[in-house]
Fold:
Amino acid sequence: MEHIVIIGNGISGVTLARHIRKLSDKKITIISAETEYFFSRTALMYVYMGHMKFEHTQPYEDWFWKKNRIELKKGYVKTVETKSKTLHFAEGDTLQYDKLIIATGSKPNKFGWPGQDLKGVMGMYSKQDLDNLEAYAPNNKVCKRAVIVGGGLIGIELAEMLNSRNIPVTFLVRESSFWNGVLPEGESEMINRHIKNHHIDLRLSTNLKEIKSDENGNVKSVILEETGEELPCTVVGLTAGVSPNIDFIKDSEIETGRGIKVNRFLETNIEDVYAIGDCAEQHEAIGNRRPIEAVWYTGRMMGETLAQTLCGNRIEYKPGHWFNSAKFLDIEYQTYGWVFAKPRENETHFHWKHADDTKCITVNYNTKTNEFIGINTFGIRMRHEIFDKWLTEKRDVDYVMNHLPKANFDPEFYSTFENEILSAYKKQLQPVQ
Amino acid sequence: MSLAKPDAVDISTKQKLALTGGIIGLFILALALFNTNFPNKAVFLTLALGLITIGTIVYSRDAYLNKLEGIKNDGVWFKSISSRGVWGWIVGVILTGFYIVLYFYPQYLGLDMVNEDHRINTGLVSLFDPLSQLLSGRNASQWFVYGTLYTVAILAFGYKFILKYRHNRYQQIRTVSVMFFQLGFAFLIPEFMYVMNSDLPYYDLKSMWPLNYYIFDEWSVKAFLSNGNIGLALILFGIITIFVISPILTYKFGKRWYCSWVCGCGGLAETAGDSFRQLSSKKMSAWKIERWLIHLVLVFSVVMTTAMIYTYLGYDSNAFWLTRGVFISLVIGFLTLVFAVVMFFKRQELGKDAKYGAIGFFAVVTLLLIMHFTGTTDHIFYIKAGDLRSTYGIYIGSIFSGVIGTGFYPILGSRSWCRFGCPMAAILGFQQRLFSKFRITTNGGQCISCGNCSNSCEMGIDVRHYAQKGENIVRSSCVGCGICSAVCPRGVLKLENDSMKGRINPTEVLLGNDVDLMELVNQK
Structure:
């Protein structure tokens, strides 16, 4: 029986294993050094906030794996020998595979800041990071202040987490406005205000220079690059993005760039070795997508796709229309199609914001053809299915604006804003007299 | 138990004062319970209920109004009371004790058990005499005490719930609805009905058979029928609600129209029980127990009610058109109709559950036929029908729904009666699963499997199991409270009434992936 070995028990590896089991009888082993069972990484924040317990982040009960004959091995793969198809573990043992899938995800970026390895400095990615945070920031008596470095999705989640335990937070963001490499100006600025409304000390255009240590090797303070100001703190969260977690294969023959290089079939340069999820890097970007996509659902989709290939139906990874979502403290965000921070050539944005400063949308469309390209929504839920359909049908922006109520996904009895949005849109279209 | 956990966020001074006020209110009730004879009962009752209500209001205002609108679940699993900690167990034991005394030893509450018509109460019950006098001109019973406390709990904690979800109009409107039905239909109207006609039995108009299992008791039916047109109208209304109104509303809106908008048991669970909703078990094993238990209770209640009515009906067709023969034919005819319709339209959807359904159906029909043709009069299978009824009353009506259902809130979660025992929920759920426009729609491929939805489901549905597959949630147990949708951080879930077509949509590959792959895999 063919032995499929998957390194990494995240969403990519687990989706792959589930689908292979549906399609075949192959022997499947999933290896993880992080946890015994699959859990949802995106839910770690809710464990610290007390909304859930860690066991609730596990989507499958413990009996699931045995029932589906998916073997779980806890261990850390130190090296991969592709010639003999052998994995060597840090614990000393080895494992043979017929097909190997690397799905090891990401690790937090560190940019060589002085003091970045001190006690109390941590990322917010793994179960170990969560345990670490619990140890160093259990409450606001032990942790008088935390400083977060890096204004992205993980940074704002970490801020929300610490805020839930009334720990004062200073949030250092390199950019002039929160996540404005991705979000258009109006949205980004609304989120700036929302962060401040939560009494988080947001510092824009601010870089970290150095983390200072006390006599025991614990964090004592941080020094800011621009002003030289020293901020006393006991915890530093490093959330300046993530990069593929592939150090263990650097000495193997598997080709790597920033991530593990794969073709559209998710195959590496070595036969019978594949890579999926955050750690895979496409040779050529697919459409407007990045070559490395560290997104929950792309990992899942790669798993869904590769299972077909491994079970005899060799198919390309062909993701559909771009979509994503996130939550910034109390404001939900969804995106369908492409909305860039600044409109590209022949593109323009229509932006509407509600007076209460917690809801807005931005619609991106082509000024020449009027084709609808994408939408960002904040504080209003939209239907994925409808926007996917409209993007496939290449609807024009007028059609989309006139049919917005069809796409609304807010709970029943919610106030709707489509009329207000439509009249703002029509007003914008009128030529200036 | 709570020692190993991180500290729950401290409460403010204002909240401590509010809490103290509420506890003083409860303390007055406790003093009355231990036979303190208060001089001016009306004043002390007002003081007690007022302190409890105002305490809850002040506490919730301080908890929610000083923060921005949004999901307020911080520390739920750290607090001792809401995570099966020491306080959770203490509250559970007190509540359970209260229910045991209420149902089985009301004399310890001070109820005068001797003079039923003109009670001379003592203790806790006597403290409520002034209010009962005000509403219906008679002294209180233990049920009046219970009804008052129940109503106060739904109103005060309903207010708290509305503040907690002040960004969510579905939650607010739904909560106003349960508060209205509790105060009006369960509490005030029955008292006023008594004032107008003291011979009518207590009747909470919104409480349907089989939840209201005593409505077809002999004494109840006789009391209704001996009260002329109004009594007849009431009992007809009771029959129409379950056989006509409920199926129509459930078809259009799902069982939520009742379970989380109208029902008193649901009302208490959604308001006072809200802090315990996350405690329900999401394990597959719990689901298996649930399916057997709730349907067994339903079968029990149908057989018990039929047997009971059967025993007090006469043989003589001249006395009344509804003879035993006609009645048993009606019951069997109705069950057969339901069975035939389900098998005709939904055979495929039921899968192997169809077999269990068929066995259940034929077992019930056989039981009824044997009962009829063995010619037993008041004995059914050597058990007196009256005994069957009182067994049901004690074990299901009192112990299951009250002692376990509510007493175990801090241990089993707020809806264990609704989930494991309520025969009404079983009927509505059966229809919701098969003949209803209601579903919780999953939003394409947006789910990140975080589990907030499953965690907050009071009915123990593993919502995430469906959401992460891009599949709509169509479950008989779903009461449509909408909290899963509220807590979802990615806008994945929406309660909807839409067409029956495509309502159940199992998928393996979710929206957003290669369209050809989706077609290939999902078609099977």
User: Anything to note?
Assistant: The beta strands of chain B are 379-380, 383-384, 438-442, 493-497. Residues 64 and 163 of chain B are 6 Å apart (CA to CA). The radius of gyration of chain B is 25 Å. Residues 1-67+105-196 of chain B form one domain.
